[in-house]
Amino acid sequence: MEHTETLTRYMAKFVQGLVEAGVRDVVISPGSRSTPIAMTCAEYDEINHWVNLDERSAAFFALGMAKERRRPVALVCTSGTAAANYYPAVIEAFYSRIPLVVLTADRPHELRDVGAPQSIEQLNLYGEYVKWFHDLALPEGSEKMLQYAKTTAGRAVQEAILGNDGPVQINLPLREPLIPDFTLPGLWEADSATKERSPVIGKRAIDRGYLDSLIEKLKGFSKGLIVCGPQMDPVLGEALAYLAKRIGAPVLADPLSQLRANKYEKNNIIETYDAILKHDEIKQTLQPEFIIRFGAMPVSKPYLQWLTSLNAPLHFIVEPEAGYREPAGVETTAIYADPVIFAEQLAERLDQPIVENSWLETWKNMNQIAKDLLLAESPEEGMNEGHAVVKLAEVIPDQSILYVGNSMPIRDVDTFFMTTPKAVDIMANRGANGIDGVVSAALGTGANGKPVTLLIGDLSFFHDMNGLLIAKQKNLNITVVLINNDGGGIFSYLPQASHPEHYEELFGTPMGIEFQPFVEAYGGSYCLAESWDEYTNALAESYVSSGLSVIEVRTRREENVPYHRAKWESVKEAIGKQLKG
């Protein structure tokens, strides 16, 4: 078998292996060395290919797609630094447990480490941030090696989804000539997608004996909490609502827990715990005797600080697979079980509530007081970040996605986005918490056609404006709420702000950019909302329009800090009065 036929059949088997293992989408960053794998993906009807020119953007776009579809997405790039540009997204995928199959084309072995152009050391390029690495053999045409190409592709997908989801890398060394020949007879197996060979993965359940002993242990206490941090299981919300009702406990629900939205019962949901726990006098009165946490550590810093101050309550963390996510450094008991099954099992075995009603009512009353104060709108307030979230929650459509930028946007969503019956998936890049790639990740979540709203700050938006190109090329529907406080607003709340001699240059970093020309260059519509009526009208209009819509809300950093602190102080005073009775 001559070179071109060998290359073509080898790549065809590899791509079919991906499809049979469950991959349906591949994001391609164009380049020369990756020609065989890129063209094969584009030629094969059973896999959707997306072309994204910027590798960093492409990787985050794939990450967003995999997050929303809850299945692996493949990435293809050429050799050299192209693969290095995937690194931030690979790290985010690793920590946020998102399955990516990273396919890095490479020079053949004889051109490595000899000064060949566009050649870097790609073996184990991502180190410990991938679950599995394999350097694929050079293409060969024997039946054994064709089967090897197919099974290796399948194994890569399997490794990405076994245990905690995460990224894997396959390095593909390829010799020239690089152009496949798709006219070869018998190249494609028929209906490869119908032969899906994804692994069958069972879900862990806890032994009934342990459940009974756990319940007996918990019955010795009367003040308990359920906490749910960032997680993506769409079924867990209903299971935790049921558990909370049976156990009688308040549920501290992170904005990324998927518990604040949807139609299930939310009577025990506490959304405002971040504002409540900012105040030492209030924290000291709240001493839980046990905590059961689902998902990752919540976004809220006050919760983390409060947790470290508690007098050693029993603390259980429910994880679906092995992993350690306890940055507070407190003593915990890990329960490795499917969170939904565990919540349902525990709820079913409870014959009566464990938590005393007065404890639950205290949290619910505090939550209502805080909600009323946080949502209250004063006539003298101008455009501000908190009410941008409040009004967004009112207008955002049912059956949609809210993607949230890091720094201040996610904290404002934590504070101001309350429970809603709308089915809104709230997502963010909270694995590594970086500001890079947020635009691209949000666009990836909308590749399926679901309406997406991105709430993002000006620095984060600037950092990933390249990501807007695929919105233009694929006419993806996204509404971007751009909070422009001309710089790094979150630093205004940190000790750095007390050093004015260096603050603006090193932390405030004002850019002074007019974003409208950039938005229009990418084919988007732009609106500068200077009143709340303009803002809500622009939001409503964007949801019935196609393509990219950017709504800019300009705020002032020097006003945002006192605005937020006044809100938190009002919560402190009102709840303090209630607790004193």
TrEMBL record:
Pathway annotation: Quinol/quinone metabolism; 1,4-dihydroxy-2-naphthoate biosynthesis; 1,4-dihydroxy-2-naphthoate from chorismate: step 2/7; Quinol/quinone metabolism; menaquinone biosynthesis
InterPro entries in UniProt: MenaQ_synth_MenD (IPR004433), MenD_middle (IPR032264), THDP-binding (IPR029061), Thiamin_PyroP_enz_TPP-bd_dom (IPR012001), TPP_enzyme_TPP-bd (IPR011766)
Magnesium is among the record's keywords: yes
Keywords linked to the UniProt accession: Magnesium, Manganese, Menaquinone biosynthesis, Metal-binding, Thiamine pyrophosphate, Transferase
Domain Menaquinone biosynthesis protein MenD middle: 222-404
Cofactor(s) for this UniProt protein: Mg(2+); Mn(2+); thiamine diphosphate
Top-rank taxon, per record: Bacteria
EC code: 2.2.1.9
Domain Thiamine pyrophosphate enzyme TPP-binding: 439-553
Annotated catalysed reactions: isochorismate + 2-oxoglutarate + H(+) = 5-enolpyruvoyl-6-hydroxy-2-succinyl-cyclohex-3-ene-1-carboxylate + CO2
Boundaries of every Thiamine pyrophosphate enzyme N-terminal TPP-binding domain copy: 14-123
Stored SUPFAM superfamilies: Thiamin diphosphate-binding fold (THDP-binding) (SSF52518)
Cofactor note: Binds 1 thiamine pyrophosphate per subunit.
Similarity remark: Belongs to the TPP enzyme family. MenD subfamily.
Subunit structure: Homodimer.
Function summary: Catalyzes the thiamine diphosphate-dependent decarboxylation of 2-oxoglutarate and the subsequent addition of the resulting succinic semialdehyde-thiamine pyrophosphate anion to isochorismate to yield 2-succinyl-5-enolpyruvyl-6-hydroxy-3-cyclohexene-1-carboxylate (SEPHCHC).
Protein name: 2-succinyl-5-enolpyruvyl-6-hydroxy-3-cyclohexene-1-carboxylate synthase
Organism: Thalassobacillus devorans
